[in-house]
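ENTRY TYPE: paired fold submission
RECORD: A
CONTENT: sequence, then C-alpha cells
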Amino acid sequence: MYNVSLSFKYSHHISQYIYGFLLLKKLNIIKISNIDNNITGAQHILRANIDGKKIVYDANDGDHIERNFFSIPDYEWCDLYFKRSYSENLAKNFPKCRPLGFNYEIKPVYGIVDNFFGNIRRILGKEIVRHYDLETIPQVSNNPRVLFLTRLWEPEIISEESNSIEIEKYNEIKKLNKLRIDALNMLNDNFKEICTIGINDIKYSREIAPQFILPKMKTHRRHFISMMKEHEVCITSTGLHQSTGWRFGEFVASSRAIISEPLEYIVPGNFNNYLPFKNMEELYQSVDKLVNDKELRYEMMEKNHHYYNNYLRPDRLILNTLISI
C-alpha cells in the first residue's frame, strides 16, 4: 500500500487528481496520511509525497513558461513532474516531465459528511459532478445526432503599451472565436436537422453571433452531460493557450465519437481516437463521415471507452503515475 501526503491550493483544474487519490484511498490501494489544502505557490499544482518520492501534478492549460504555465520551483523540488499540457519541447528541456492526460472537473469527496452534503446539493440540482455521471457504454443508432456547444471569449483590450504576450493572447482569442463561429455557421448550414449547437451568453456573443446563444438552463453542466450522452458525435476545438479543452476529456469519458482540431499536447497511451480538422471543409468531411459510417462511429466509441478505463478514469490516471515511479 502506498503512503501518500498531498498539498495544494485548491482549484477546479486539479480536482480530477485529488478525486483520483481519494478513490484509490477508498479502494485501499493507498493510505493518505495528510492533506494540506492551504499552501502558497504556483497555480493549478498538486504536490504529492508518495513513499518518500516527491511528485508534482501540473494542470495548467499550456506549456508556456513565460505565461507561468510551468513551475520551475516545483520542478526543482520534485522527483517527477506530471504535466497536463505535455509537449516535446518540455520533454527536451525538462527530463523529469511526464504526460498526465486529459483534464476535466469533478468534485472530490473527502469523507462521509462531505459526500452527504454533496448528494443533497445534487438533489437540489447543483453542479456537483461525480466521475460516474460521465460514464456510459457505447451504443450507436441509425440516426446519430451531432453536438457542438462552445464558448466565445471577450477579446482583451490592447494598446500601444501592450506587451508581446498580451498581443499574442489577443490574437489567439480572435482566431479561436472566429473558428468557433465559422464552425457554428457551417454546422447550421449543412447539418441543422441533426445538430445541437450553441454558445455562451456574454456581451461579445450578443454582438457577434446572437442567433447561436443558448439559455443558461441548457448550458448548466449536469444538463450538458445528459445532453452529451444523447449525441453520438461530439465536436470540440482547441482552447486558449493551445490547450486541450475539458470537453475533450468529458467526451472520452462518455465514450463519444469525437471530432476536434489536432491535439497540441501529448497524453499517455498513444491516443488517436478522434477525427481531426484544420478548416471548415475538413470539419464538414469529418461530420459527414462519422454520421454516415456506423461501424467507424462504434469503433471510435469503443476505443474511447477502453482508453477511459485504462488511462483517464480518475483512479486509473493517478494509479498509472504511481506505478511509473
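RECORD: B
CONTENT: sequence, then C-alpha cells
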Amino acid sequence: MSNLTRGDKVVLIGTGAVGSSYAFTLMNQGICNELVLIDLNEAKTKGDVMDLNHGVVYAPTPLKIHCGTYQDCEDAAIVVICAGAAQKPGETRLDLVNKNVAIFESIVNDVMASGFNGIFIVATNPVDILAYATWKFSGLPKERVIGSGTILDSARFRYLLSEEFGVAPTSVHAYIIGEHGDSELAVWSSANISGKLIAPSLTDEKKEALFVQVRDAAYTIIESKGATYYGIAMGLARITKAILHNEEAVLSVGSLLEGEYGHRDVYIGVPTIINRSGRKDIVELSLNEDEQAKLANSVNVLKDIQAPYWNAYKGG
C-alpha cells in the first residue's frame, strides 16, 4: 500500500440530499482539509460550495471547499460516491440496481482515468451491489473499496436499544449485518451493554418489533420526507474519519467476503477494521444457527441480483 495516495483530500461525487449532508458533516467535524464537489447539476453544486464556504469561518479546522471535475480525483485520498438514481416511495433499494450499475460504470471509469490511487467509499443504493460494481470496474484491491454497508442500520439498532434500556447509544454494542436492505439481520446473540447480553431480557416479540423498526426505518422516513440523509451522512463521515485518522476502528461497513462467514464474492455489511489503508480485516462474529441461516439468505438475495449483470459483463 506504499503507493496509496496520502493527504486529507476528499472528492464527493453526487451533491444530492445525502452528498450535501455529508459535505456539511465533514465541515462541521473538521475531518478533512480539502473537499471537492462534483455533480452533473453544476449550478446546484456551485450553490452548495458557496453556502458551505460561508460557514467555514465557524468550522473547527481550516477547510478548502470547491467545485471540481473528475481530474481532481488524481490526488484525492478518498472518493465518496453518492450519485445515482434515488429511492422512491414504494421502491426497495434493490429496485434501483438497473438504473445505477450503468451510472457507476461511467463514474468509476472517469475517476480511474484521472490516475486516482486512493480509497472509494460507496453510499448509493443498492449499496452492496454498487460497492461490488465499483470494485470490479476500478480494478482496485478489495481493501480500497468500502461500502457504507450496515453502518446506518447498526446505528439505528443501537439508538433504539439505548432508548429501550435508558443508556447512551455509544454504550450499546450491537450489529445489524447482511444486505443494507430487507434481508438484513440483527445479531442478537452478541448484542450487549457493557458486556451484559441484551437478548435474555427481551421477549421474542419485543426483539422482532425492535428489528422491524430498524429494517423499515428508511421506508418510514422516505414516506415522511422523501429521503434519508442525516443519519447516513454521519455514518459516511465516521468511515472517512476512521480512514484519515488511521483509527483501526471496527465499523459495520460493506466488505468483500472471501470465505469469511462461509461466503465469498459478495459485498455485504459486516464488522470491519478500518484504517488508513481502507479495510484491514473483517471481524467474524460468532453467529448462532438462526443468524447463520439469515446471513446465508441475505448473501443469496444479493448474489441473485448481481449475477446476471456480471455474467453479461464478462460476456458469459
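NOTES ON RECORD B: Residues 203 and 209 are 10 Å apart (CA to CA). The first strand starts at residue 9 and ends at 13.
STATUS: closed
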